[in-house]
Amino acid sequence: MWLIMAILSAFFAGLTSILAKCGIKKTDSDVATAIRTIVILLFSWIMVLIVGSAGTISTITPKSLLFLILSGMATGASWICYFRALSMGDVNKVVPVDKSSTILSILFAIVLLGETENLAVKLIGTAILAAGIYFMIEKKPEEQRKSSGKWIVYAALSALFAALTSILAKIGIDGVESNLGTAIRTVVVLLMAWLVVFMKGKQAQARQVDRKELAFISLSGIATGASWLCYYYAIQNGIVSVVVPIDKLSIIVTVIFSYIVFKERLSRKAFIGLLMMVAGTLMMAIWS
After folding, report:
1. Burial 102-111 (b: 16+ CB within 10 A, else e)
2. How many Å apart are CA 88 and CA 111, to the nearest integer?
3. Smallest Cα–Cα separation from 78: which of 22, 13, 123?
4. Which of 48, 41, 76 is closest to 186 using CA atoms?
5. What are φ and ψ of residue 286, in 5° steps?
6. How many Å separate Cα 121 from the centre of its chain?
7. What is the mean pLDDT of the chain?
8. CA distance 231 to 233
9. Rounded distance between C-alpha atoms, residue 244 and residue 109, angstroms
10. Cα torsion for 209, 31, 50, 253, to the nearest 10°?
11. ∠ CA(74), CA(50), CA(164), 5° rounding?
């Protein structure tokens, strides 16, 4: 079941990037992130009520609560950086850099969680994945002149915080129902997202969002909520160093839809990079 949940998480995560990109053409990325988080919060708590886990809040240990909060903070930081990068660069460029969090997550899982089974396979798969990411994000000289390249800094920071999210969540969700853990984390993300909006004085923009973009932002929030619920179920019941690579196969969904919606074509080199990322991911998922 946790493998199925990891695959579903990848599908919904892939949709999230496309829907979010459609929602930030005119809307500020910080404002969009804050609005999305409201949708996710509602979605996640509805699931808590459906599964009936709200009554177990009082049984959560201080350690689990601390790590869930830290995981939520890491997620909030990752989102802020990620959607800033999406607003500045192409989806096909931003997403591969963000997915490099897989490499950090695997290394953290090996070092911090002691997931050393089939270590050679994991390291080889990670190396192939890293090479694929390089092929996908390398830019042509003429593109370098046209772009400031600032998006890559935000995308890299997004990857770092996303990697920390997985490890902190694995520790925090121990003994906690996965839907409830996701809902608690989302409260923290919501507070962070709106704090950024108010610190930058953008709260007035939240009332002026284009209705069409608001619809896409809301849909991306629902997709994210669905992805999270599947992902943290898989994280809780499965192996982090296997779940994370499967989840990152969402890049396939993103690339397909970015071609259909935004007409963003992959170069031959980038396509080879995508195949390498998939190969490295499948190697770790199957033989780990």
Report:
1. bbbbbbbbbe
2. 34
3. 13
4. 41
5. -85, -45
6. 24
7. 83
8. 5
9. 10
10. 90
11. 15
CB burial of residue 251 (10 Å; 0-12, 13-18, 19+): buried
Distance, in Å, from the CA atom of 173 to the CA atom of 64, rounded to the nearest integer, reads: 6
CA-CA distance, 116 to 255, in Å (whole number)? 32
- HSE value, Cβ hemisphere, 13 Å, CA-based, for 220: 26
C-alpha 166 chain-centroid distance:
10
Nearest to 23 by CA among 1, 39, 44: 39
Q: Is the pLDDT of residue 186 over 80?
A: yes
Token pair recorded at residue 194: 């709106």
pLDDT band (50, 70, 90) for residue 143 = very low
Looking at the chain, the number of H-run helices and the number of E-run strands are 13, 0
Q: Check residue 215 and give its pLDDT.
A: 93
Q: Which residue has the tokens 């092929």?
A: 135
Q: What is the mean pLDDT of residues 130-148?
A: 62
Amino acid in the structure at residue 218? S
Query: Residues in the chain, how many?
Result: 288
